[in-house]
Amino acid sequence: MAAWQNALQNLNHGRHAPALAGFNDLVRRFPGVSRLWAELGVAAAGNLDFSSADHAFRRAVELAPTDAVSLVAIGTQYYHLRRLDQALACFKRAAAADSSSANIRLTLAAWLERFRRLDEALECVEACLAQHSKDSHALYFKAFLLYRKGLSGEAETALRELLQSDPALPLDVQSDANHLLGVVLDGFGQYAEALRHFSKAKMLRSQTVNRVALEQAYDRGDQARRELLAELTPETLRRWREEAAASPCPHPLALLGGAMRSGTTLIEQILGAHPEVLVFDESMISLQELIGPFQPQPPARRLTLQSLNGVTAAARSQIIGRYCKSLLRETEENPGGKLLLDKNPSTTAWLPVWLRLFPQSKVIVALRDPRDIVISCYFQNIPKDWAIVNFLSLERTARFYANCMDVWLRMRELGGFEWMETRYEDVVGNLEGEGRRVTNFLGLPWHDAQAAYYETTSRKFVHSPTYNEVTKPVYSRAVGRWEHYAEALAPLQESLAKYCRAFGYH
Fold first, then answer.
1. Per-residue pLDDT at 42
2. For residue 234, is the peptide bond before it cis, meaning its omega torsion is within 30 degrees of 0?
3. Which helix (H) or strand (E) covers residue 254, if one does?
4. Which residues sit opposite 339 in a β-bridge?
5. What domain range is 328 assigned to?
6. Which of 3, 198, 302, 492 sits a CA distance of 20 to 30 A from 102?
7. 3-class DSSP state for residue 486?
8. What is the CATH number of the domain that holds 276?
């Protein structure tokens, strides 16, 4: 019907307000259609009306309590709302509704693993394999769970058997299995073989995406950032700060950024153990999404200094309101006077946009040996998203790091805002000393709970890809990891030397 198609078109193009109006009208006319309620929930969430989204999703589940596919989709939407218990409940209900589906059982197992319920996750996979004994995705995930349970030897055996079982395994299974085998072998100190498996995983993964198109799209964005940086002056930042004095953010705010794999999650967890800090782990709303309505329309799509300067006081207040509302979806706690810490490495590349909106916020940038960052990023099993193309080769990974840190070096040079750097190696070497320094920068005293941050972390859901690592006491084995792969990094040493010098690594 035309009304549904119009509402769906608005939803698919991110026009959430008209989509919400359209779906509200549709559910009034057809209140018994589960799909309409689910789509209403998506539109409401996009419009930051989280209570309406929750109501709509609940109604969709009530109308189709045994529709396993819909339950998985609604569970995913609950994750975006950061309603984690409801998300897990949907996945459990979906598995009960269709116990014969390998995909749905594995979806539930993956979520149980993220909640660190490893035994339950393994039981779920075993039940799947009892019905689908040769399902390659289930066999891979069993090996993954063995690794997560600390049974690396058993995981290695399972992975080798899987890779040898069928030359026609799906590409994603081959890639995931080779990647995990590389992780296991790296842990065993078998670095040369580990690198071979990582490289093979990247080669296989590159066959699943349009690598050229993704590289071109990313490079266009990087060029736009560089053009914006070239236009900035200290006077620009000073003027933004003066303009913001009339309409500051309603909450004390800090950004924790830096390159990926630079230790941001570790710092976040240490700060998050402080009772006067609310941390937000890679929040669901991006700066580009926030400022999108205020960008130039086609064909002038690029965000420029002119368009940033053109953001009026009223528009900025509206953007800040949307940002705070989106951020606070993740907690039922009234923030009061607590400091809000947005930990999001991806924001570093768009730091000028952040400072246009929040020039009075404090900025913490996590540093780590650039060579360790490149190796660690390359060894990540990045899913199919916009960033995947930057981790398919060491050369591209090093370039991705350089693009991010060039933004920081330029912003550090311009100044005009409160910032500090913290080194991963210093945190590892003296957690309380460096943790105290960062905490004091935020205007807070050190709290004893911060030293045992991992006790708090182990009881909560961590959204970062390093969710497993930060539940353990601090360790030093990742410092100098690049030296095991020095030969592979040799062609990149000259290009990385600039950043080693700038950040004090030799």
1. 94
2. no
3. strand 253-258
4. 277
5. 217-368+375-479
6. 198
7. helix
8. 3.40.50.300
Domain assignment present for residue 246? The answer is: yes
Residue 293 within any structural domain of the chain: yes
SS3 call for 242: helix
How confident is the model over 22-52, as pLDDT tens digits? 999 999 999 999 999 999 999 999 888 999 9
Q: How many domains does the chain have?
A: 1
Rounded Cα distance between 61 and 74, Å, is 8
Instruction: Indicate the residue type of 51.
Output: S
In this structure, is residue 274 part of a structural domain? yes
DSSP bridge partners of 420: 364
* CA dist., res. 223 & res. 363, Å (int): 24
* Residue 17 CA to its chain's centroid (Å): 26
Non-local (6+) Cβ contacts of 43 within 8 A are: 7, 10, 11, 16, 19, 20, 22, 23
Hey, what are 118's tokens?
């490893």
**pTM check: above 0.70:** yes
Quick check: 469 and 488 in contact, CB under 8 A? no
- Please list, in sequence order, all residues whose beta carbon lies within 8 angstroms of the beta carbon of residue 293, skipping any fewer than 6 positions away: none
One-character DSSP codes across 388-408: GGGGSSHHHHHHHHHHHHHHH
Backbone angles phi, psi at 159, to 5 degrees: -70, -40
Cα(264)–Cα(270) distance, integer angstroms: 10
Those residues of the chain that have pLDDT short of 50 are 297-300
Do 105 and 128 form a contact (C-beta atoms < 8 A)? Answer: yes
Residue 195 domain-assigned? no
Cα-based angle 398, 463, 182 (whole degrees, multiple of 5): 50
